[in-house]
């Protein structure tokens, strides 16, 4: 049976629409969490990468649609290239896709392990609290829930990247906890560029409530976290210095340049910082764990004691 062109075009159109729901978060969520999962597990074999990316993206899609159907008017100002303001999909159909993804995410997770299923379920609950119960309208709940969802994505990806989908190491658990803490205390770096749209929807973010203090907290928080993470993952002096210097540059950018366009650039710098600090567990596995195998003191053993 010969396939006709229109159905193929329709399929491509709909797949592109789904991609657009997540496009803005590829740099801020998908890439950092993928690199983190591969670094924290560490990766069992290369074929696991596609599983990690697919699982994280599927759950990112579910979370993003749930968030974007709440305030399409905000996206007309902040992100007009998203599917709803572009008119690529109706609000009614987007709601159908949002809830159809719930059993899909759970079913996919269940094929791997009960632990991954539980992680997916927890992420679903957090998404409902964030979007349907409007927790995103208050900065503290927004930051806390976003960080917890971020941690769930990291845990799910780490479970998939390892050789055992039902277990993560103590080092991986430490990495996930540090990821949640660092993200919760700095994620308002992503909100500066969206202040105009947040004002329209009534969302209360740190940059709106404390415009000066929130920038100072980023300028100080990112370098302080970099110093802390350098010690935790036992970076060599040169690597630690480069990491801290980049974090200082990123923090200073938020202070010195405060236009909307500059805030977009600052957010890109912050996204790169996220990726860098999320691959630090790989440094530990490659260099420190190798030293342990040569008979030097074990950090993991120290954690267990």
Automatic annotation (TrEMBL):
<dbReference type="Pfam" id="PF01040">
    <property type="entry name" value="UbiA"/>
</dbReference>
<protein>
    <submittedName>
        <fullName>Uncharacterized protein</fullName>
    </submittedName>
</protein>
<feature type="transmembrane region" description="Helical">
    <location>
        <begin position="238"/>
        <end position="257"/>
    </location>
</feature>
<dbReference type="GO" id="GO:0016020">
    <property type="term" value="C:membrane"/>
</dbReference>
<feature type="transmembrane region" description="Helical">
    <location>
        <begin position="212"/>
        <end position="232"/>
    </location>
</feature>
<keyword id="KW-0812">Transmembrane</keyword>
<dbReference type="GO" id="GO:0016765">
    <property type="term" value="F:transferase activity, transferring alkyl or aryl (other than methyl) groups"/>
</dbReference>
<dbReference type="InterPro" id="IPR044878">
    <property type="entry name" value="UbiA_sf"/>
</dbReference>
<dbReference type="InterPro" id="IPR050475">
    <property type="entry name" value="Prenyltransferase_related"/>
</dbReference>
<keyword id="KW-0472">Membrane</keyword>
<keyword id="KW-1133">Transmembrane helix</keyword>
<feature type="transmembrane region" description="Helical">
    <location>
        <begin position="269"/>
        <end position="292"/>
    </location>
</feature>
<dbReference type="InterPro" id="IPR000537">
    <property type="entry name" value="UbiA_prenyltransferase"/>
</dbReference>
């Amino acid at each position: 049976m010969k396939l006709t062109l229109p159905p193929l075009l329709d399929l491509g159109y709909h797949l592109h629409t789904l991609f657009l729901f997540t496009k803005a978060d590829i740099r801020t969520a998908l890439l950092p969490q993928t690199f983190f999962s591969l670094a924290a597990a560490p990766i069992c074999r290369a074929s696991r990468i596609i599983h990690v990316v697919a699982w994280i993206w599927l759950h990112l899609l579910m979370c993003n649609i749930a968030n974007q159907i709440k305030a399409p008017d905000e996206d007309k100002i902040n992100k007009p290239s998203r599917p709803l303001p572009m008119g690529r999909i109706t609000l009614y159909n987007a709601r159908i896709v949002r809830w159809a993804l719930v059993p899909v995410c759970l079913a996919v997770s269940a094929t791997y392990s009960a632990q991954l299923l539980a992680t997916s379920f927890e992420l679903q609950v957090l998404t409902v609290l964030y979007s349907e119960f409007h927790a995103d309208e208050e900065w503290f709940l927004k930051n806390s829930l976003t960080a917890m969802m971020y941690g769930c994505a990291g845990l799910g990806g780490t479970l998939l990247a390892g050789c055992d989908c039902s277990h993560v190491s103590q080092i991986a658990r430490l990495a996930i906890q540090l990821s949640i803490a660092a993200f919760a205390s700095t994620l308002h770096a992503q909100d500066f560029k969206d202040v105009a749209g947040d004002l329209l929807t009534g969302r209360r973010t740190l940059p709106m409530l404390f415009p000066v203090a929130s920038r100072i907290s980023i300028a100080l928080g990112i370098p302080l976290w970099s110093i802390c993470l350098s010690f935790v993952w036992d970076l060599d002096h040169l690597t630690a210095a480069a990491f801290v210097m980049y974090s200082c540059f990123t923090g200073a950018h938020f202070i010195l340049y405060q236009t909307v366009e500059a805030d977009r650039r600052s957010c890109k710098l912050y996204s790169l910082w996220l990726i860098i600090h999320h691959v630090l567990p790989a440094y530990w596995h490659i260099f420190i764990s190798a030293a342990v195998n040569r008979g030097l003191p074990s950090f993991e053993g120290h954690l267990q004691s």
